[in-house]
């Protein structure tokens, strides 16, 4: 059986210099060897006008429109798997990723409060398996208040997805990774990447 895989990238770094893209590419190298018939769809949020739009009081009434929200929700419902990557930017996901999520996290489209227990929701993206790939300049655990991997995992679980253990490449701003190319740095966690690709 072949699957459709949507690869969403939210870094603002040039692709050849990006650590998160480095890990995504390594993941895809292993994944496509195991799943040669899958369709891979790339969504670089730098190229999507919706990801440049932040929700404000002035645009609230037009923000969730067909082109910026519903088309992307339709895309999420049309695929089987999502690989989403984000660097840590100021203790959070990048603004591009936040703007993307703000457009697709829409009540009665991707989740519903109907029939749900207190504090919980019914996720409407239960078609999805999700692999999160994150990077951060600091070593792992330095900023527990800004855990972007946990934020993404919880968010996709909220919409009903089957979220795999996130892959985090931490410490890209300190030695030894800071002296390595993104490809070399990604290879430092290749065992984790291979294992995740096999389980996805
Ligand atoms: C605007 C900006 C903000 C950043 N904020 C943080 C941060 O809060 N914590 C951290 O550990 N690294 C931070 N970094 C470093 C990046 O997370 C790190 O360089 C990461 O590897 C970037 O991934 P990329 O190469 O795919 O863009 C920041 C980088 C930028 C450009």
Automatic annotation (TrEMBL):
Binding annotation for FMN: 18-20
Secretion signal, residue range per the UniProt entry: none
Record keyword Oxidoreductase present: yes
Known EC number: 1.6.5.-, 1.7.1.17
Source organism, top-level taxon: Bacteria
Gene Ontology molecular function, alphabetical: electron transfer activity; FMN binding; oxidoreductase activity, acting on NAD(P)H as acceptor; oxidoreductase activity, acting on NAD(P)H, quinone or similar compound as acceptor
Obligatory cofactor(s): FMN
Function: Also exhibits azoreductase activity. Catalyzes the reductive cleavage of the azo bond in aromatic azo compounds to the corresponding amines.
HAMAP family recorded: Azoreductase_type1
Protein name: FMN dependent NADH:quinone oxidoreductase
Species whose genome carries this gene: Spiroplasma chinense
